[in-house]
């Protein structure tokens, strides 16, 4: 696999909570989008793991081609 699979050509809107740990799927293969379910193990890609610093609404990248992982940067508009 040379790159990520496009899960969807739009972002995932999600409310994250301060102190919670998240693992954003970078490969596009997870059936729990936008989060990792371990499907990346068949690829050379790894999830982006982070702990939320504050409660907020974010837009996670759905196309998996963002330049600002795990957040949407509008790249899906050009795919």
Structure description:
The protein has 79 residues and is mostly beta strands. It has one domain (12-78). Helix content is 0%, strand content 23%. The strands form 2 sheets. It has a two-stranded antiparallel sheet. The chain is globular, with a radius of gyration of 12 Å. The protein starts with 11 loop residues before the first strand and ends in a 19-residue tail after the last strand. The model has no long low-confidence stretch (mean pLDDT 96).
**Quaternary state of the chains:** single chain
- The CA-CA distance between the termini, in Å, is 18 Å
Helix content: under 10%
Largest sheet: 2 strands, antiparallel
**pLDDT under 50 segments (min length 5)?**
none
Number of E strands:
4
Question: What structural class is derived from the secondary structure elements?
Answer: mainly beta
Strand order of the largest sheet: 1-4
Question: Overall 3D geometry?
Answer: globular
Secondary-structure element order, N to C: EEEE
Rg, rounded, reads 12 Å
List the total number of helices: 0
- Round the mean pLDDT to the nearest integer and report it: 96
Count of domain modules: 1
Strand content: 15-25%
Structure, briefly:
This protein is mainly beta and 79 residues long.
List the main descriptive attributes of the protein structure presented here:
two-stranded antiparallel sheet; mainly beta; 23% strand; two-stranded antiparallel ribbon; globular; 79 residues
């Amino acid at each position: 696999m040379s790159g990520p699979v496009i899960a969807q050509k739009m972002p995932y809107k999600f409310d994250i909570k301060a102190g919670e740990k998240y693992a954003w799927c970078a490969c596009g293969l997870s059936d729990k989008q936008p989060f990792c379910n371990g499907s990346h193990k068949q690829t050379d890609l790894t999830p982006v793991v982070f702990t939320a610093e504050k409660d907020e609404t974010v837009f996670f990248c759905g196309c998996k081609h963002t330049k600002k992982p795990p957040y949407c940067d509008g790249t899906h508009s050009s795919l």
